[in-house]
Design goal:
The complex is a heterodimer of chains A (100) and B (303).
Chain A: E1 7-9, E2 17-22, E3 28-34, H1 37-54, E4 60-66, H2 71-85
Parallel strand pairs in A: 3-4
Antiparallel strand pairs in A: 1-2, 2-4
Helix pairs in contact in A: 1-2
Chain B: E1 15-20, H1 24-27, E2 37-41, H2 51-64, E3 71-76, H3 84-94, E4 98-101, H4 107-123, E5 132-137, H5 140-144, H6 146-150, E6 156-161, H7 163-170, H8 182-195, E7 198-201, H9 210-223, E8 227-230, H10 236-243, H11 247-265, E9 271-273, E10 276-278, H12 280-295
Helix pairs in contact in B: 2-3, 3-4, 9-10, 11-12
Classes of the chains: A alpha+beta (100), B alpha/beta (303).
Chain lengths: 100, 303
């Protein structure tokens, strides 16, 4: 998917993550801040990149502020932010297809 | 990825706990509290501009969190909103056990939801007929039409009254003793029993008023409800204790079942147990009490 505009999903509450995506010319630029960076930083980063690659997002600036979210929460927030950036988050979501 | 087993239409549902599907902190460990069912809410608990985010969160939660034997029901947005169709696609694709139809008022509402559920089951390769339905009756019209609603689909396992909206439309507020909802509760219970589906009472909103809550739960049981919507884990234990048959009820039921077997063998229909006349309906109720005691985990006999 092509990031078309700035979009945000998620909150800064405990167990959640706030994900912001912005258009970028080339490549993925990731900025990650996490309350559990020392323990899980590498895993969180891998989840973010995997989820973006599943969505076929190749160019984006991605800012994640993680407050101890489970992996499934983090995925949900990234997917929502990406779909919001394409104005496609409200209906006809490919559940089980593009969204896994 | 989690694949939940095929939902059971008739199962124990003493407590159905509401949780906001948009709050990861809540839904991540919803199963540890021991409620019989959880209701992940896409409706009133979720702000209008977060309906999309709540669906992604719901889908990922159900696909990745093992809720075990806790039943997972989703409350979808009303049929008068732009959200319910995508809600149904999301819920069915996620493999949740069932859908709670908010503000249900007619058999037609049930048919509309069922059509979309079936379409979604086909679209996502989910076993047809798997997704159960229940109806939330929130208006006088919903209560008046309770019987046609609960008989509108084979997927329907029960109905619940929603006190907040109902009281608003009746111009009443919560009263001690529940007189303001007595007729509605009674009418809904009769419709549910006539249709042989389950019946659930509304949630009690004042979490700190445990005394008022207990009064209501006791009345619920006396009226014949199968369970109750709840909004806090603190409300679970009292409902479970109250809805389980008492030791005295179990002992009497056992005595009935045993004596009935003996009497039937010797050709007697009506007889007395402990000085009370009993016949076949008593025996059927005794069997129900024992089955419920078993389901609640309080039966230690050998019947």
């Amino acid at each position: 998917m092509e990031i078309q505009k700035v979009a945000i999903a998620g909150t800064l509450e405990s167990s959640d993550a706030q994900v912001t995506v912005e258009p970028l010319h080339s490549g993925i630029e990731l900025s990650l801040e996490s309350s559990v960076m020392n323990q899980y930083g590498r895993q969180i980063k891998a989840t973010i990149l995997d989820t973006l690659s599943q969505l076929e997002v190749k160019n984006a600036k991605v800012i994640v502020v993680d407050k101890g979210a489970l992996e499934c929460t983090l995925k949900a927030r990234i997917q929502c932010a990406v779909y919001r950036s394409c104005d496609a988050s409200e209906k006809n979501i490919p559940w089980g297809g593009g969204i896994r | 990825m989690i694949t939940r087993p095929r939902p059971e239409k008739n199962r124990l549902r003493r407590t159905m706990m509401f949780m906001n599907a948009q709050k990861p902190g809540l839904i991540k460990d919803a199963y540890i509290y021991g409620t019989d069912s959880i209701i992940l809410d896409l409706e009133d608990a979720v702000a209008e501009n977060q309906k999309d985010a709540a669906r992604f969160s719901l889908y990922q939660a159900i696909k990745n969190i093992d809720y075990g034997t806790t039943e997972v029901i989703v409350r979808i947005n009303g049929l008068d909103t732009p959200h319910w169709q995508e809600d149904i696609r999301c819920v069915v694709a996620s493999g949740a056990d069932g859908i709670r139809i908010a503000k249900c008022e007619s058999a037609q509402d049930v048919h509309t939801v069922e059509e979309h559920v079936l379409a979604a089951e086909k679209e996502f390769g989910v076993e047809e007929g798997r997704t159960l339905l229940m109806a939330a009756l929130e208006s006088p019209k919903g209560i008046m039409n309770a019987y046609e609603i609960v008989t509108a689909s084979d997927r329907m396992f029960g109905c619940a009254i929603s006190g907040g909206d109902f009281r608003k439309s009746m111009h009443v507020r919560i009263e001690e003793g529940g007189i303001e909802m007595l007729v509605a509760r009674g009418q809904m219970l009769m419709a549910a029993r006539a249709a042989e589906v389950q019946c659930f009472d509304t949630m009690f909103p004042n979490i700190d008023d445990m005394e008022g809550f207990k009064q209501e739960v006791i009345q619920n049981r006396k009226m014949g409800f199968d369970g109750k919507s709840i909004v806090s884990p603190r409300q679970i234990q009292f409902v479970h204790d109250t809805f389980a048959p008492t030791a005295k009820e179990i002992a009497y039921a056992e005595k009935l079942v045993r004596s009935f077997n003996e009497q039937a063998d010797s050709g007697v229909g009506v007889y007395t147990v402990d000085g009370k006349m009993v016949d076949i309906p008593f025996f059927e109720d005794a069997r129900r009490v024992i089955a419920l005691a078993k389901a609640c985990g309080v039966y230690e006999g050998d019947l």
